[in-house]
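Moderator note: this is an archived Q&A kept for reference. The question asked for a predicted structure of one protein chain; the sequence and the answer are reproduced below.
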Amino acid sequence: MMEKPLDEGIKVEVMFHVGSCTVRSKAVVLFPMWATQGCLQPFEFTDLADEDRSKLETDLQKYLDQAANQHS
């Protein structure tokens, strides 16, 4: 969560870790979403490699499957 949003359209490089996957890619900042204590800053990948996209999709699906199993 960010205290102050970035301007929409700014080109950035994002890096984050999900499961066994570390993603580092260029992105463009989208319109911020205000939250209770700051804002969430969405972004859109502009050059996510196919291999990174596949790893990210696999790890995110594992999290979704775990969450669904916990609520069943």
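Archived answer notes: The longest strand covers residues 21-29.
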